[in-house]
Amino acid sequence: ETGVTQSPTHLIKTRGQQVTLRCSSQSGHNTVSWYQQALGQGPQFIFQYYREEENGRGNFPPRFSGLQFPNYSSELNVNALELDDSALYLCASRIEQESTDTQYFGPGTRLTVL
Amino acid sequence: GQQLNQNPQSMFIQEGEDVSMNCTSSSIFNTWLWYKQDPGEGPVLLIALYKAGELTSNGRLTAQFGITRKDSFLNISASIPSDVGIYFCAGLSGGTYKYIFGTGTRLKVLA
């Protein structure tokens, strides 16, 4: 039990739609990262938010965007969904002042795009 | 996206056997991490390594940070059925926040 929760657990969308995924971090965790994990692959870093601002991004297009809120929750938004966006989306939270390894992952949201 | 190479991709072993897996990169990392992921769960951190040559244990798990800083190794001794899962390595370069994960080693234990 990492104290990080994600919703929904599963989601089915069609190509071209928009989706919002949610993550609730542990209290005090001021940094949240989002990852995309395709079937049979390792997680791929999407972006990181610190104190409600994006402060790092992986190789993902602008249609992937996020928000972080003062109550330690965050969102991942994906516009104009494509079939290749089907994946497990993981959020991970930590306290910025602590060492970078103490990053706690949520169980993920399984997104299927038809 | 960039991923680290993990070997083997999958393995079947008998309960009680020792397991070895490795992770290699073309880039240098300052931190190596090993995670285990069970079905329907997010990755759980097993071991973190911070210095080249470092050898760290966590129960039956032992991991090493390669001298070249481009590889890492994970050993599991006396495997048990609950060791089943996917093991991922992840590297972190100095001054960055961007974890690069490996392709995973899928471990299956035969009782």
Would you summarize the structure shown here?
The complex is a heterodimer of chains A (114) and B (111). Helix content of chain A is 0%, strand content 51%.
Description:
With 114 residues, chain A is mainly β. Chain A has strands at 5-7, 10-13, 19-24, 31-37, 44-50, 53-57, 64-68, 73-78, 87-94, 104-105, 109-113. In chain A, the strands form two sheets. In chain A, strands 2, 4, 5, 6, 9, 10 and 11 form a seven-stranded mixed beta sheet that branches. Chain A has a four-stranded antiparallel beta sheet with strand order 1-3-8-7, with no helix packed on it. The mean pLDDT of chain A is 91. Chain B has 111 residues and is mainly beta. Chain B starts with a strand and ends with a strand. The relative contact order of chain B is 0.34. Chain B is globular, with a radius of gyration of 13 Å. Helices cover 0% and strands 52% of the residues of chain B. Classes of the chains: A mainly beta (114), B mainly beta (111). The interface between A and B is medium-sized, with 27 and 24 residues.
